[in-house]
Design a protein that fits this description.
CATH class: Mainly Alpha
Distance between the termini: 58 Å
Order of helices and strands: HHHHHHH
CATH topology: Ferritin
Radius of gyration: 18 Å
Largest sheet: none
Mean pLDDT: 77
Structural class: mainly alpha
Number of helices: 7
CATH superfamily: Ferritin, core subunit, four-helix bundle
Length: 173
C-alpha cells in the first residue's frame, strides 16, 4: 500500500511541476497586470500544493501513512499523461508568446485535466484520509479552473462580466 501511495504522490508531484511551469511561463508572457496577478496567485498555490505533497511523500517513505496532518487546508500515469499532453500540445505557442486569452484556454484545459486526474484516483482510493486528500486536490483544481474561466470571461466581455458579477441589470438597478 505504501509503495502505491508513494507512486501516486510522485505522479501528483510531476503534475504540480508541470502546472507551476505553465503558470511561470504564462505570467512572464502575459502583458496584462490582471492576468499576471492571477497567474502569480495560481503559481503560488501550485507551489504550496507541491510542498504539501512532497512532505506527504516523505512521510510514506519513513513508514508513516495517511493521517489528518496530511490533508490540505482550504494517480495513474495515464491521468498524468493527459495533463502532460495538454501542456505539450501548447508548448510551442507558449514559447512564441500566445495572447492572454489563448493562455487562459490552455490553463482552463490543464486544470480540467488535473481535476479529472484526482477524481480518477478518488474512485480507487479506500483509505478515508487518502480520499479526503484527493477530494481537496480535486477541489483546488476545480477552483483554479473557475478562476481562469472567470478571467477569460472578463477578457472576452468586460461589460458582461461586471454586469453578471456585480448583479447589475440593464435598468441600472
Amino acid at each position: 500500500m505504501a509503495r502505491d501511495a508513494i507512486d501516486m504522490l510522485c505522479a501528483v508531484l510531476e503534475l504540480e511541476k508541470r502546472e507551476r511551469r505553465f503558470y511561470e511561463e504564462a505570467e512572464a508572457a502575459c502583458p496584462d497586470p490582471v492576468g499576471k496577478e492571477v497567474f502569480r496567485m495560481l503559481l503560488a498555490e501550485e507551489e504550496d500544493h507541491a510542498a504539501h505533497v512532497e512532505a506527504l511523500r516523505r512521510r510514506f517513505e519513513t513508514g508513516e501513512g495517511w493521517s489528518e496532518a496530511c490533508l490540505l487546508e482550504g494517480p495513474s500515469a495515464d491521468a498524468a499523461a493527459a495533463v502532460r499532453h495538454v501542456a505539450e500540445r501548447h508548448a510551442e505557442a507558449l514559447r512564441r508568446g500566445m495572447d492572454k486569452v489563448a493562455a487562459l484556454g490552455v490553463g482552463i484545459e490543464m486544470e480540467a485535466a488535473s481535476a479529472a486526474f484526482y477524481e480518477g484516483l478518488l474512485e480507487k482510493a479506500k483509505d478515508p484520509f487518502e480520499r479526503r486528500f484527493l477530494e481537496e486536490m480535486a477541489r483546488a483544481e476545480r477552483r483554479h479552473h473557475l478562476i481562469l474561466t472567470d478571467l477569460q470571461y472578463y477578457y472576452e466581455d468586460p461589460e458582461g462580466y461586471f454586469m453578471e458579477k456585480e448583479h447589475r441589470g440593464l435598468d441600472g438597478a
